[in-house]
Structure to design on (241 residues):
């Protein structure tokens, strides 16, 4: 809601009704649904005590899914080096979620489902920005999530404290800036090219988990994170050859 209201305040005076105009409204609605599903599954994983760093790492199966779908659906060229690098990223996730570890439980499926939704979201973004305005694209996604979640939250409502409200407002503001920048990037480059850059989020997620929740990943989890990040860097280097 914060993101939608902020976008109305910032962009509506200049864009007017262009803020809700789209030539691909069905894809815009699907994009909004994917964002909502990805967010819900990620929050559910945190609710069931999957650490934020590890949950974020599992979500980064999405580049593998994006690469496969971008080749099949968007007809983008996928070379051998890209497949190898992204397969290494998958290996890193498997190292983190290894049989016998504390994470090898049913709730770890939540970030996995989130990764599928994130992958679909990225592909849809690439498609809609070919015809629709970047700001309108992000506003409609936020509006979709606001409307649907406002109906659902009535059954689970808890009045937030002032601190909680401020944190949610800050999160919404940061999300708006991040999504606008990311959407602009998808207009300038292919999905496969941009996918590895998002691996940096794993580092920041682990840092947030340590600073705010006192959680330090174990050695094997750190190894898995390093493998995922290295695969992303390798993919970038391969693309520059």
């Amino acid at each position: 809601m914060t993101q939608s209201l902020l976008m109305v305040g910032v962009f509506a005076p200049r864009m007017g009704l262009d803020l809700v105009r789209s030539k691909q409204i069905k894809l815009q609605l699907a994009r909004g649904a994917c964002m909502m599903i990805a967010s819900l599954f990620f929050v559910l994983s945190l609710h069931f005590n999957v650490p934020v760093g590890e949950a974020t790492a599992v979500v980064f199966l999405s580049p593998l899914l994006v690469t496969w779908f971008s080749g099949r659906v968007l007809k983008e060229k996928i070379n051998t080096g890209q497949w190898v690098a992204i397969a290494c990223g998958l290996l890193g996730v498997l190292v983190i979620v290894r049989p016998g570890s504390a994470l090898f439980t049913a709730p770890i499926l939540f970030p996995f489902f989130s990764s599928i939704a994130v992958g679909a979201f990225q592909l849809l973004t690439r498609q809609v920005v070919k015809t629709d305005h970047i700001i309108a694209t992000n506003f409609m996604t936020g509006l979709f999530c606001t409307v649907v979640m406002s109906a659902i939250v009535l059954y689970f409502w808890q009045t937030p404290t002032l601190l909680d409200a401020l944190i949610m407002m800050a999160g919404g503001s940061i999300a708006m800036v991040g999504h606008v920048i990311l959407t602009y990037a998808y207009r300038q480059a292919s999905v496969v090219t941009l996918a590895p850059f998002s691996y940096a989020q794993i580092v920041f997620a682990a840092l947030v988990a340590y600073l705010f929740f006192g959680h330090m990943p174990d050695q094997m989890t750190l190894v898995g994170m390093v493998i995922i990040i290295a695969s992303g860097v390798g993919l970038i280097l391969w693309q520059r050859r």
Remarks:
- The first helix runs from residue 2 to 15.
- The mean pLDDT is 80.
- The two ends are 43 Å apart (CA to CA).
- Residues 2-239 form one domain.
